[in-house]
Amino acid sequence: MTREVNRPADPCHKSLEADILAALWEQVPFPRLPVDAPSEIKELVVDVENPKRVYAIHHASRRHNLQLLIEKFIVQLRKGCGCISCTTPSCFTCRQRLAGKAPIRRYTPTSARTLAVFLASQNDAESRLCPHLQPPGGPSDAVKSLIFGPRYSASSNNTSDNAYTAYVDPGSKVKSPKGTTGGLISKKRQSKGIRGPPSPQTRRRGSVSKRNKHSDGEAKKVDFASPPHINHEIQITERSGSKDYRSFAANVFGTVAFKMLEWLTPNNMNAMSEKVATPDDHESDIVEGLGYNSSPLRNPNGNLSTPSAPSVPETDDQDHAKGTSDVHRYSASGLSGLSSKNEVNGFYQRAHPEHRTAPSSNMQGPPPHQRRNSNARIRTSSVSKSQNRTVPDPLPESIIDETGPLSPSIHTAQSEKISKGLVRPPTIPRATSQVTGNDDHLVTEAEVSEPSSPQPQANERRPQVDGVSGEESLSGSEYMRPVDVPDLNEEDVASGNNVESTSELDSYLPQSLSRLNIQAVNFICDILQEDATSERHLLEPPTISGPIRRSSSRLKSWRRRRKSEAPYPQDLKFQWKLFAEQSIFHVLSDPQALLDSFTSSGSIVDSQTLWYCMLRLTRVAPSLVFDSLWIALASLFAPPKTLQSTRSPTSKLFLRSQKSFTNAEAASLISVCFHALVATAPLVTDSRQLNDMSRIRAHGLSLTSGGAVARQPVSLCLQYEDAFTDDMTIRLAKRLLRVIPTRRYFDELVELDLDCEDQIEGSDVLEILLSHLESSTQPILNFSKAERSMHEKRVPILLLDWARAVMLHEWEGKPDVSGDGAFGGALSLIAAMYQKRQSLLLGDVHFRSEYFGERLDTIQMPVAWLSFTSTRQKVHLLDYPYIFNPASLVSYFRAINFSRMSRSYEESSSLQSRINAIIAPDSLVTDTHQKNVLQDLLNVPSAKYLILDISRKNVLRDAFDQLWRREERELVRPLKVHLGEDSGEEGFDSGGVQQEFFRLAIAEALNPDYGAFTLDERTRMTWFQPGSVQPEWKFELVGMIVSLAVYNGVTLPITFPKALYRKLLGEPVTELHHIADGWPDLANGLTNLLEWNEKDGMVEDVFVLTYEFSASMFGQPITREMEPSPRMSWPQFSDHPNSTPLSASNPDDAALVTGDNRNAYVSDYIRYLTDVTVAPQYTAFARGFRACLHPKSLQLLTPSLLQSILEGTQEIDIGELRRAVRYVGWDASHRTVRDFWSVVKRFDERMRRKLLEFVTASDRVPVGGVSNIQFIIQKNGEEDGVAGHLPTAYTCYGTLLLPEYRDKDVLRERLSMALENAQGFGFA
Predict the structure, then answer these.
(1) Per-residue pLDDT, 1135
(2) Residues 21, 51: contact at Cβ < 8 Å?
(3) Rounded CA gap, 856 and 106, in Å?
(4) Exposed e or buried b per residue across 714-733, where buried means at least 16 C-beta atoms within 10 angstroms of its C-beta
(5) Average pLDDT over residues 971-998
(6) Cα four-point dihedral sign 542, 545, 547, 552
(7) Exposed, middle or buried by CB within 10 Å (0-12, 13-18, 19+), for 862?
(8) pLDDT-derived band at 231, boundaries 50, 70, 90
(9) Which among 177, 169, 170 has a CA at the least distance from the CA of 151?
(10) Which of 400, 491, 639, 1220 is deepest in the core (most CB within 10 A)?
(11) How deeply is 75 buried, as exposed, middle or buried, from its count of CB atoms within 10 A (0-12, 13-18, 19+)?
(12) Per-residue model confidence as pLDDT tens digits over 874-927
């Protein structure tokens, strides 16, 4: 099936996952509907009870799982599994085993990290892990180069910050000042212009700290209990090492960002927390070493130094300048609170650097090897006063104006925090007089204005809201209250009523929209754009506004309830961002919510409205949209309920209790995802640009060089490249296309399941999908007629572009590809769209992918395809010939024919060599009679060529005589024709004699005088004579002559209607446009019949047609009433001349054609015209046509392509012929050559065809154009007089012998005379 099959999970993994989810549930900010939301949106709001459905938890879990996966891959690449029988190619143990005694080089940390990131980013990355790999048991090599040491800086009222720093080698113990928590604080901001919000501690103490009055660029310090003027910070430095600055991998994957993928894994975090642990009994030594005591201090080299006096503090700039020459420095905080099993305390902060928590100073994790009870219920709002919990900070950039980046760090209790109240509801406040150190309280504006104490209490605890420390945010003079928290009047606060809020907090859950509609999509996207909180991306246009934005005239747009023109509060912007992201994730990742959002009464909304919704969503949160849809698609890999039934024999293959979807529902979900992908492409409003960009992408190009394919602006090409190469979109497209073969496989299983026959669904998932694109439903939104027309062209073309993008991404350079993966799904989609290309407004050129044809072998590949059998798992690219251009298909077709011809020639040559050895005089066979008998018996099998001796008087009869009862092995040999040699003609057949033979033979065979074929006087089309008097075997021989011509690459001077070529290729002839070229008047009349409006008169009164078919057979009108039975036969002339005339059976009265049966009449008329009346003649002709051609090779051709191969092109472009011609003895600038082309340019079509026939023996241009013709002009002496030699030609070699004439008039006269009287062969 696919790799999307669910696998049973490890119980230990499930338990660990439950612990992580429980911890994240306590850590992450909860999205809630803001207070200024419109009333209409509240009807769509629901509570989210499942932690996995909270976007912040989902995002953090993904980051965590990626880090763990990278850690495993690094161990696998660098150390291996240790199993001597390991077969995983990327495992170091397997590499050692395969190398044997040869030396093997171990990956460097950077190289291993590079490969690990790549492997972990692939689909189904777990399958690439070695099954024998043991979980990493200790820290990786990435943390061995880190050096941990404390940094102490003096805090004063002046604007300068002085720091004391000490370095400690890894594994050494560092002492922190007494009274401190032993944790780490965040790195001081050094970017100018960055201003942080007031710290929450300062607000709780009731005054504004003087630290907040520092100038821009100053670092804000946190006071410690002792000493009062020293700030404690842990600094992490990295040992310098050799680095190749010319290496791409070293400069990308050797950066801190990628190293942190290893540093922040649980094992490494545990190791780092042990290194930075600072027990109380060692803290004094550190302080003394910095000048406050005389204890020895260990420097970075491990030597002890004892300063005798306080040293001068160094500023941050000085400290940085001293360290940049040898080490990289990083500051971190909060590491000491981590343990081996409680790594999730700072987990959300690692996944979201913008949402950092500030853990309490007395935060204690569980002891090592102690796991949280996975069965414990997750409590989201109960308050435990004896428990301290961390508070994640909201996005700083969303709350305050900042111009510089923040370094990722994990805060201690003293680090700066941003209000938690905007994401958690505050408890109902009590009077301030009753608030103790451990009580919750509500911070009011009055408290903030009071002066603060110079130093916080050492045992001060943070207020807890919803069981998590933090306090509410203030906006103006009122705090921002969520909509579900009741209003509190001033009397309740002033009276000190202690209102219990436990029950209310217990019911507090994250909120989200349950579904989306047009109004909700516009509202959410408008908010994210207005607040500038949308995701940064490279899609074009970056925002949807102005004339692009659409709304329904029947629906009222939603607006936020704002009463003032003041700047919108940053707190509310952050709340709206959380709520919008949660709503998008909650709806788009849930397949049922998607169906509820974009379907109505069981049918999906119109295509253009759906595209607009996806366009808006992908311009505000593209990564979130694509990831959410990717999650929703996983449900489509669940089998139908019929296959999960216990009665079904396939029930053991699938897991039960999986929610399944019908094909109609699956098609709706697929349609939503496809429209999201279509919306990522640049918004092009010109259909020509859309087609040109599709052609450029079909060649596998990002930019066009010189406009060889199409010329489009470089900026547009790069925008397409950004959209079609994005990792998130490619991942979604791959899973989306894998759904298609999976759903079809389910349908096959259901059909094979005898117990489920009564429950089989009718339509294929792709049929339903394409019917949605074909429908002309009026859009819900207001679009102009031009926009609707452009959308009808845009969606199918971009669907093909996305299928092609996945194919190019997945292709491994081989013609056989996976049929049940993304590549197979893309081919299935293209095949389904090709069948409906007329209704989708697509041409054959839209389906071509020249990239593949340019890179496949044109000889070996098609020959190998003949013996290839496609299965569900493996398919061949040539099974889908419409993705190749016509020139490539003709090359493949002729390569197959040439291969068969070469094989037959080699077999005959080998047999001939053996016969010669037998009949040799010194052979073992001595009897001459036996030699002669053996030679006669093997004469036919040993012949190397198919030789035809044809006289000019009886061309067709001689051809029939010599082709009758020929075996297939004889017909596929190289052809040699001896034409007219009985009358003294001499010719060497290098192609020209064959052309002459086929031209004469087919012209005689198709002569209407023989009664086998008819010729339309207007269109010059040839068709079979209904009820012909000629025997069927003659039609078979005519078909054999045509087959020989196609097999040997010869074009014929014939014109058949396209209906014949459709029938030869097995395609039905049922539409009016199938017969329009052969019978244009009839097609126009039937079209008028179908389009007639009966308001102007009844059909039977205006057209007066009867339900019968009439044909003229040698002057006799034969009429038969048409019947729907496929076994109906047309009367044939009897061999007995005295039999009853066929016209005697004509019906006297037939039913009239009415408005009710006119559609059936047209269908039956086309069937009688192209099938019933000529069935015996066509069947014999088709049997002869397939005599030389491999049946599978005909699958490469379309009706138009087969017609071009057989008939060539009648239009001759003299300009192209002049560019393709070669000269021998002439120069292109010679006067005679210029006169020649001046004369030829004035020829009419008849004379041009005569010239081409005079030189090449064919008056048609072969498929591929004039460039495939060998046309040589060779000098043949000089003629001074008027009566000189005529031009002659080597037809066998395509050479025109042109003398040098006196002037242009003489050349025109002599050339015209030669063309009008050319016939026969001879050597000049």
Answers:
(1) 52
(2) yes
(3) 37
(4) eebbebbbbbbebebbbbbb
(5) 78
(6) positive
(7) buried
(8) low
(9) 177
(10) 639
(11) buried
(12) 999 999 999 999 999 999 999 999 999 999 999 999 988 888 887 777 777 777
| Alpha-carbon span 718 to 724, nearest angstrom | 10
CA atoms within 13 A on the CB side of 837: 14
- In 3D space, the residue among 877, 870, 642 whose CA is nearest the CA of residue 761 turns out to be 642
Contacts 24+ apart (CB under 8 A), 891-894: 891/858, 892/858, 892/861, 892/862, 892/1196, 893/862, 893/1193, 893/1196, 893/1197, 893/1205, 894/1049
HSE (side-chain half, CA atoms, 13 Å) at 227: 15
CA distance 674 to 737: 10
**What DSSP designation does 438 have?**
T
Q: Indicate the SS3 state at residue 660.
A: coil
Q: Give the list of residues 6+ apart from residue 866 with CB closer than 8 angstroms, or none.
A: 896, 1190, 1192, 1193
Query: What are the structure tokens assigned to 385, written together?
Result: 């006063």
At position 833, the amino acid (one-letter code) is M
Judge whether 352 and 324 are in contact, CB under 8 Å.
Answer: no
Region at 607 (left for phi over 0; alpha for psi -120 to 50; beta for the rest): alpha
Is 0.85 topped by the overall pTM? Answer: no
Token pair listed for 575:
């709340």
Share of the chain above pLDDT 90, in %: 37
- Angle between the N-to-C axes of helices 1231-1241 and 1304-1316, in degrees from 0 to 180, rounded to the nearest 10: 60
Question: Which tokens belong to 195?
Answer: 């201003």
221 pLDDT tier (thresholds 50, 70, 90) = very low
Please give the torsion angle defined by the CA atoms of residues 692, 694, 697 and 702, in that order, rounded to the nearest 10 degrees.
50
CA-based nearest residue to 1164, from 1173, 1004, 1155? 1173
Q: Please check whether residue 956 is in contact with residue 1281, taking contact to mean a CB–CB distance below 8 angstroms.
A: no
The answer for residues whose C-beta is within 8 angstroms of residue 750's C-beta and 6 or more apart is: 640, 642, 643, 756, 759, 760, 761
**Per-residue pLDDT, 561:** 86
Give the pLDDT of residue 1306: 87
Taking the alpha carbons at both ends of the chain, their separation in whole angstroms is 69
Q: How far apart are CA 1261 and CA 1289, in angstroms?
A: 18
Is the CB of residue 1270 less than 8 Å from the CB of residue 1261? no
Q: 1192 is written with which tokens?
A: 């599978």
Positive or negative, the Cα torsion across 312, 317, 318, 324? positive
Beta partners for residue 1111, in sequence order: 1118
Choose the most confident range, by mean pLDDT, from 604-608, 1061-1065, 1105-1109. 1061-1065
| CA-closest candidate to residue 466, choices 485, 445, 491 | 485
Strand, helix or coil for residue 1106? strand
For residue 211, CA distances in Å to 186, 220, 224, 905 come to 16, 6, 14, 97
Q: How many CB atoms sit inside 10 A of residue 1065's CB? A: 15
**DSSP states of 666-718:** HHHHHHHHHHHHHHHS-----HHHHHHHHHHHHTT-SS-STTSS----HHHHH
